[in-house]
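#structure-requests
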Amino acid sequence: LAYGDRLVRIDPQTGALGDPVRIAGAKELDIESALGGGTLLVSAGDGGGRGWIQERDPVSGALRRTSRRYLGATFPRLGGTTHTRLWIAEATGMEGYAAALSLRTLRPLPSPAALQNGSNGIETHVAGGVLIVSDDGGGAARNYCGDPATGAPRMTLPRSAQHGAVLAVGAGRIVYLGP
């Protein structure tokens, strides 16, 4: 569980809450599990557009590594992982972008050029072996199902999905909220 500047472990057997782990300087958090639950990824922001991503132990909350600092309108949003990559999206004020980071180092990896200039609403989701990129009004170049290992497009999202928000992906279906 993540809220404000705190991570709280929930015991999967009893539902009991553990002691909070504070993230110094954070006012907002986003979390993602990776590598079969062996890694906890935390995106943190200070409420003023400065953010960072951390890898933490999923049981103790102990810090393992941290990324470079990000400067945008919000903190980076976590979009899912493969066995080697973390996909993120960040609003920078006038535009946004999506990018892949190495799970091993939390450093940026090459990403398709189309993902480097999106709107503030660009999002990424990884589910079922597919990368979903959605960007309201981004057209076919930034609304697609892609290869999560490279970010390369495989198929354009239906036109109706290009002006909505992806809510969930599963069982061969994409659930989105349309205009």
